[in-house]
Amino acid sequence: MNGPDGRSAQAAPLNGLGGSNGPNGLDGDVDEALALANDNRRGPRPGSGGAPAAPAPGPRQTQEAGAPQAPAPAPAAEHHRATSWPAARRLAREAGRRAAEHRARIAVDPDRDTDPPFPANIEGTMGTKGIGAVAGAEGIEGFRSLLEGPAGTRALPRGAVRVPLDQALGLVLATPLTALTDLPSFDTSAMDGWVVAGPGPWVVRDEKILAGHASPASLADGEAATIATGARIPADTTAVIRSEHGHTDDKGQLHPLRRVAHGQDIRPRGQECRSGDLLLPAGGLVTPAVLGLAAAAGYDELAVFPRPRAEVLVLGDELLTSGLPRDGLIRDALGPMLPHWLRALGVEVTAVRRIGDDAKALLKAVRGAKADLVVTTGGTASGPVDHVHPTLRALDAELLVDGVAVRPGHPMLLARIKDGKYLVGLPGNPLAAVSGLLTLAEPLLRALSGRAEDEAPYGAPLHSSVQGHPYDTRLVPVVMRQDSDSGHDWAVPLHYNGPAMLRGIAASDGLAVVPPGGAQEGQEVEILDLPWSWGPATGGSLGVSTSPFKTTGNAAGNAAGHTTGHTAGNAAPSHLGDETRQAAPPNVGAESPHDTMGSATLTTTQSGTQTADNSPGDEGCFT
Ligand SMILES: Nc1nc2c(c(=O)[nH]1)N[C@H]1C(S)=C(S)[C@@H](COP(=O)(O)OP(=O)(O)OC[C@H]3O[C@@H](n4cnc5c(N)ncnc54)[C@H](O)[C@@H]3O)O[C@H]1N2
Ligand code: MOO
């Protein structure tokens, strides 16, 4: 990939900074990034680089307990007094675990409404109270062991409830799902046809055997009976012959049209499971399929954790709730988006309030919130009407994360407002808010809802290089596409990934986690799934796709100008199929370090991958 000055991205990884902020001039933060980039070209200057002054004293906060900025280069730690992105997620997860523990505790004993200090052994914690202390970990372990006890021996875990099946959708299993019966619970016919005993031909009984009836009389050798799929198999049956594989002669005798194998088309009792078998572990989401399985296995109720409750506070006087933007006012993009996004994460949204830029109203709303989590939007920075920090100070809240080394979204924050109650402050810029949602709210809510952690994050190679921030992680919307030859998934970076833009994310399957310094074409990066994306590679791994270029996720990706989308004609990368080339909108380009507003100009790198110079939509990569 070439920069505007012709140098390769590898040789000059920061050369896209200057053109990244569109036609309206640089804002303060881009200046800052440029200064850093320039410093970087000259070689690192530890402790310098235009670092902003230390943040004004805020709510109680502590040193980061050993939160390195790795893998960022050394100057990052000094430049950004922010929690690293991985550490922020760990902290949010820990906050969720502790909120779950709190909820479980007060479910048993409402008077024990105090939390142990936030543990200090979590990298990146800012809570002084917890330094050196591990109190609370025992409680969490105890909670876990209840979840992981052997099948059939566990009581209902603290904080869990039993609900009828039809109320369990979207909740999290609090106990393993063990079979309450053999499945099938009796030997059953897999096909419509005849049951037969011994070698043919067979005399067919008059009595027909139907599903839903008690045991039929046993068969004698040389005897057959008409049977329906799902009906009980009589004792001494040899096999089931499908109706299309046998015929009866005019004497009423049944003859096979094919060789009959012993036991064919009989589903034996317990084929799927035996009573007491583990069907699903605790911590999994109750999906429609889980409901079906639970019902088949004999359940009327499920032990689940109640939904976490969240309240959304939308800040900003400039927001309109209908019509076109006018007179400096803009449409609120977060009010219509966040509650549903939270619901998709399994949350009960108890209220959505519009607070404007009213500090008193914000304080009252946060103080009075009953939910486990308050999510605010906007007001996280230090502008004249940014009231989130002062509000947290007024509440004597404990800031656990105050800024994250991630773009967009770096002003995001996480605070404990009181025992068991947390606040995630999302920045006002809409994509920055999504970044905050996935960085802080999602791990917190996942842990709070009792969901098991992902064993290994999903990764995919990038279809084209992505410019990195010098020191911060970037989250970049991508669509997942499958290479027809190798079957591998690629993450195709999308345009319109600026902090104020939703056009990229709306067309995406997920967000690529681009490490500080950027990532090259073909480099494997972590992908954050969106709650409604199919889950990359599902179709591929099941071998269901016959398409030469399978859409593994959101087919709308083409509308946001992914790499393969703009490679019209025969210039498409050779490792993608024809369909890729046909799918191409003409005038949008791949994520590129130096994209600015303007029309796309295609360039071809040595590897044949298309990139776009001067493409629209990548304004503000570094704000
Ligand atoms: N001096 C500094 N200023 C800013 C910094 C900084 O580090 N130092 N960071 C910038 C970044 S990056 C972001 S992101 C924003 C975050 O600011 P706030 O969280 O205080 O958000 P607001 O100022 O309220 O709004 C920012 C932007 O977003 C628009 N907005 C707000 N709410 C909504 C909504 N519900 N729907 C659509 N758009 C919304 C708002 O109008 C602003 O344009 O701070 C920068 N400044
Ligand atoms: O959240 Mo700002 O938009 O980090 O870039």
Describe what this molecule looks like in 3D.
The structure is a single chain. The chain is of the alpha+beta class. Helices cover 20% and strands 21% of the residues. The protein has 13 helices and 30 strands. The strands form 8 sheets. Strands 1, 21, 24, 25, 26, 27 and 28 form a 7-stranded mixed beta sheet that branches. A 6-stranded mixed beta sheet has the order 9-6-8-7-11-10, with no helix packed on it. A hairpin with a 2-residue loop joins strand 22 (413-418) and strand 23 (421-426). Helix 3 (85-108) crosses helix 9 (430-448) and helix 7 (359-368) packs across helix 8. The chain is elongated, with a radius of gyration of 30 Å. Bound molecules: ligand LQZAQKY5 and molybdate ion. The site of ligand LQZAQKY5 has 28 residues, from helix 1 and helix 9. Keywords: Magnesium, Metal-binding, Molybdenum, Molybdenum cofactor biosynthesis, Transferase. InterPro entries: MoaB/Mog-like_dom_sf, MoaB/Mog_dom, MoeA-like, MoeA_C_domain_IV, MoeA_C_domain_IV_sf, MoeA_linker/N, MoeA_linker/N_sf. Pathway: Cofactor biosynthesis; molybdopterin biosynthesis.
